[in-house]
Amino acid sequence: MTTHVLILCTHNSARSVLSEGMLNHLAGKLGKDVKAHSAGSAPSGRINPFAIETMRNAGIDTSSCRSKSWDEFSRDGAPPLSIVVTVCDSAAAEPCPVFFGGKDGQAGPPVKVHWGYPDPSNAEGGDAGKRRAFELTRQAIGYRMLQLLALPLESLDRKTLQAALVEIGRS
């Protein structure tokens, strides 16, 4: 059974999209039955061009990338979510979406965790600084996504999964 992971950030234009792309890319390479999705509470309606460039440079397919609302994941027919990850930078007092989740037919609400990353869109140093920040963010996200994919997702109970995801967030 596919593990569906929803990654949330307010505008769904950079960090959450990088996370979705990285997790889907790595899951495919490793043969893991994990599907990432991303969304925002106030989607910008466009993907940051540096996010697209960064993923393409890393060999990640960007053809399905789009900025979307988290409302899509609470409708009938939406995938049954197992994990919800917020990636806003709480240290910067950035508003982070809250996902209440849990739909009819689901075993329970998804396990929720916060893995904050600074917004690479705010990097200094012009375009070169932004490119560097986006690539460093992609690498940091990739490190955590590899750890997530190393978990025996199909056999972990909710409490153990929650603890493992919190521990990954500390790395």
Could you explain how this protein is built, in words?
The protein is α/β, with parallel strands linked by helices. 36% of the residues lie in helices and 13% in strands. The chain has helices at 15-30, 49-57, 126-150, 158-169, and strands spanning 3-8, 34-39, 81-86, 111-114. It has a 4-stranded parallel sheet with strand order 2-1-3-4. Helix 1 (15-30) links the parallel strand 1 (3-8) and strand 2 (34-39). Helix 1 runs parallel beside helix 2 (49-57) and helix 1 (15-30) crosses helix 3 (126-150).
List keywords for this structure.
four-stranded parallel beta sheet, 171 residues, alpha/beta
Strand-and-helix sequence, N→C? EHEHEEHH
Provide the low-confidence segments as ranges: none
Tally the helices: 4
- Care to count the β-strands? 4
From the N-terminal CA to the C-terminal CA, the straight-line distance is 28 Å
Percentage of helical residues?
25-40%
Query: What gyration radius follows from the Cα positions, in whole Å?
Result: 15 Å
Q: Provide the β-strand percentage band.
A: 5-15%
Mind sketching the topology for me?
Elements: E1 3-8, H1 15-30, E2 34-39, H2 49-57, E3 81-86, E4 111-114, H3 126-150, H4 158-169
Helix pairs in contact: 1-2, 1-3, 2-3
In short:
The protein is of the alpha/beta class and 171 residues long. It has 4 helices and 4 strands.
